[in-house]
């Protein structure tokens, strides 16, 4: 079942590329349950037209969502939100716990550890 997604979404003029904004918005909706597991996302062309973006922009967002394990591209059958979508947050939480313990073990302050994360954050590059 295909649904309308990102009905209120607009690409902002911030320094973050449009494909990242689309990816972030869809990922957030999946994690919050606004887009349920098993939902068929709109076609790349359909969502691109809805958002007034190039098809390559939406295709890249979908590709990265697939790499994150949030969706699965099924060719002509479309792009579906995967059952493993909820596990992504658990994996990130586990990685964050590991990082926090490692940073503390290395003698870093919370601020120094946060500075490392900020420096590594993709939109800061």
Please give a handful of descriptors for the protein shown.
125 residues; three-stranded antiparallel β-sheet; globular; mainly alpha; 3 strands; 5 helices; single chain; 54% helix
Shape category? globular
Order of helices and strands: HEHHEEHH
Query: From the helix content, strand content and strand pairing, which structural class follows?
Result: mainly alpha
Number of helices: 5
User: Main beta sheet: strand number and arrangement?
Assistant: 3 strands, antiparallel
First-residue to last-residue Cα separation = 38 Å
Arithmetic mean pLDDT: 87
Proportion of residues in extended strands: 5-15%
Q: Compute the number of strand runs.
A: 3
Q: Using only CA atoms, what is the Rg?
A: 17 Å
Low-confidence stretches: none
The order of strands across the largest sheet is 1-3-2
Q: Helical percent range? A: 40-55%
Domain HTH gntR-type: 16-84
Keywords: DNA-binding, Pyridoxal phosphate, Transcription, Transcription regulation
GO molecular function: DNA binding
InterPro entries: HTH_trans_reg/aminotransferase, Tscrpt_reg_HTH_GntR, WH-like_DNA-bd_sf, WH_DNA-bd_sf
Question: What do you see in this structure?
Answer:
Helix content is 54%, strand content 6%. With 125 residues, it is mainly alpha-helical. The chain has a three-stranded antiparallel sheet. Helix 1 (18-32) packs across helix 3 (55-67) and helix 2 (44-51) packs across helix 3. Keywords: DNA-binding, Pyridoxal phosphate, Transcription, Transcription regulation.
């Amino acid at each position: 079942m295909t649904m309308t997604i990102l009905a209120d979404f607009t690409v902002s003029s911030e320094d973050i590329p449009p494909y990242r904004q689309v990816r972030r918005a869809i990922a957030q909706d999946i994690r919050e349950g606004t887009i349920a597991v098993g939902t068929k996302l709109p076609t790349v062309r359909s969502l691109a037209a809805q958002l007034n973006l190039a098809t390559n922009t939406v295709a890249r967002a979908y590709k990265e969502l697939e790499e994150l394990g949030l969706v699965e591209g099924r060719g002509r059958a479309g792009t579906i939100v995967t059952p493993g979508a909820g596990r992504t947050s658990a994996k990130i939480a586990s990685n964050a716990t590991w990082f926090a313990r490692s940073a503390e073990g290395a003698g870093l302050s919370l601020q120094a550890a946060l500075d490392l994360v900020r420096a590594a954050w993709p939109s800061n590059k």
